[in-house]
Amino acid sequence: MKIISLQKENQELINQAAQLLVDAFREHWSEAWQTFEDGLQEIQDIMEEDHILRVAVDDKNNLLGIIGGLSQYDGNVWELHPLAIQPNIQKQGIGKMLVEDFENQVRERGGITILLGSDDEDNMTSLSNVDLYENLFEKITNIKNIKCHPYEFYQKMGYTIIGVIPDANGIGKPDILMAKQVNRPAGFVNKTK
User: Fold this and answer.
1) Helix, strand counts (H, E) of the chain
2) Inter-residue contact 115 to 179 (CB < 8 Å)
3) Is the Cβ–Cβ distance between 78 and 111 less than 8 Å?
4) Which residues have C-beta within 8 Å of that of residue 69, sequence separation ≥ 6?
5) CB-side exposure of 173: number of CA atoms within 13 Å?
6) Can you give 133-174 as a three-state secondary structure string?
7) Are 6 and 64 in a shared domain?
8) What tens digit of pLDDT does each residue of 93-148 get?
9) Does the reported pTM lie above 0.85?
């Protein structure tokens, strides 16, 4: 396996990436990319400047997974979006390798923080279908994973839940916000220690 940047002239991998978005998100994220055309538009959008789009491929140039990101806040913050692995080969370390590669790409560009949103549209965590305006921080602290929501994957990768956007995907369907500092600026002093 190798991880490479997806180039605009590689139409075969672009098509595989577009279909992967549809296939990987179909089961748990009903509002995600519904058609190949939706996936293709997303891939084309991610290929613009100030974006990162990396793909994992096998020795025969078959797509295993993709990861993308968008520069924000003058390049200090990068939003990780999307991360998708072929459904039949998930939980084999490909996502971990893609995230680590993405973190290196962000560091090389001088980014400090990676931000991501992980939607809960299908009652996958204890944050869905509850009033998040009441005791929000307690609910975040006591979050439970009910149906294999990916927030735990990101926690294992060093990401922290920094908040939620209640009702981001409709009533009772929040977006869980997570972040990780990947590049500590020289001279930074942590005043809490």
Assistant:
1) 5, 7
2) yes
3) yes
4) 51, 52, 53, 78, 79, 80, 81, 102, 105, 106, 114
5) 11
6) CCCHHHHHHCCCECCCCCHHHHHHCCCEEEEEECCECECCCC
7) yes
8) 999 999 999 999 999 999 999 999 999 988 999 999 999 999 999 999 999 999 99
9) yes
> Is 85:24 a contact under the CB 8 Å cutoff?
yes
Residue 131 inside a domain? The answer is yes
Q: Are residues 87 and 134 in the same domain?
A: no
Would you say residue 15 lies in a domain?
A: yes
113-119 vs 77-85, strand pairing mode: parallel
Distance separating alpha carbons of residues 191 and 193, to the nearest angstrom: 6
Which structural domain, as residue segments, surrounds residue 163? 117-184
Beta strands in 8-148 (DSSP E): 51-57, 63-72, 77-85, 113-119
Burial class of residue 168 in the structure, from the number of CB atoms within 10 Å of its CB (0-12 exposed, 13-18 middle, 19+ buried): middle
